[in-house]
Amino acid sequence: MDRLGACRAFVNVSERGSFTEGAAATRVPQSVASRRIAALEKHLGERLFDRSSRGATLTQFGRDMLPSAKRLVRLADDMEHEAKQAKLNPLRLAVPDVCTTRDLARLDAEARRNGVYLDLHAAAPAGRTELVRSREARAALAAVPSDDATWSVRLGLAGATDQIADTVYVEALRVGRAARSSRRSRIWIQPEDDVPHIRDRMFRIRDAVGLQPAQVTVSATLAAATAEVLGSTDLLLCSPKQAEELGLHWRPVGEIQLVRGFDVTAAVRDDAERIRTRLWHAIARCLGAHDQDGETP
Fold it and tell me: Mind listing the UniProt keywords for this protein, alphabetically (predicted)?
């Protein structure tokens, strides 16, 4: 038996003295309201109403039960109201600071359509993790190795001028002894990729092909790295989406496949699952991530 539905019908019929009007207030057909009240009477073991052609009149038992029924209905209504308010409470999500304002706005809009209200906070990888640890954010898009990633973003090298080759080899940046006095082109690693599974692999490639230590450098900001690239033959480690936004020409790295991986980390597991299941495509588009077939959503 639907006790809440029966109590709601009971309260509405008692207040209006009519099964027809009470059913309308309950937003159910009269036959449904009658069945619910009859089931409640059977469950309680006494009649709640004296039924007549003039309407429905509470019995003494009905008058005794009415306050409890009203409390139950009121508590249920309060719970529904609080549930609606809780859904509107924004979930603070720490996101990569390489996401553009437009992409973040689209993510926020799609989240609302999926019943998730976000408070987006941009930060670097270490900052995002710290925000969740300190409970300043409920969840974060954490930088993770590709094997642990929910979203994967291809990385390559981008320069100010179009490259003739389809692939850029790090080894090509090595300068011979005869040209030792000339300026060496550098690869700039932006803060988003200053994580061991990307940075350290680039350093190992640098050392393996004989580049100077300063030829693969971590920049303090993306803007500073981009400025260096725009004014020289330097290259920026970035995603195809970033290269397009910055007006750079992107190519894959010849010696290694690098992937910027992301997963949701959250203080509460339900928050992480809700973000993954409801916002997978919106986050993928925001990050410039690709699916298993290598296509960007």
Answer: DNA-binding, Transcription, Transcription regulation
Contact predicate 118/91, CB 8 Å: yes
pLDDT digits (tens, 9 = 90+) for 141-194: 999 999 999 999 999 999 998 866 789 999 999 876 445 545 689 999 999 999
Alpha-carbon span 238 to 258, nearest angstrom: 10
Question: Coil, helix or strand for 93?
Answer: strand
CATH number at 238 reads: 3.40.190.290
- Both 43 and 157 in one domain: the answer is no
Reported as a single tens digit per residue, the pLDDT across 82-122 is 776 666 678 999 999 999 999 999 999 999 998 889 999 99
Give the angle subtended at the CA of 282 by the CAs of 156 and 245, to the nearest 5°: 40
End-to-end CA distance of the chain: 47
Do 72 and 131 lie in one domain? The reply is no
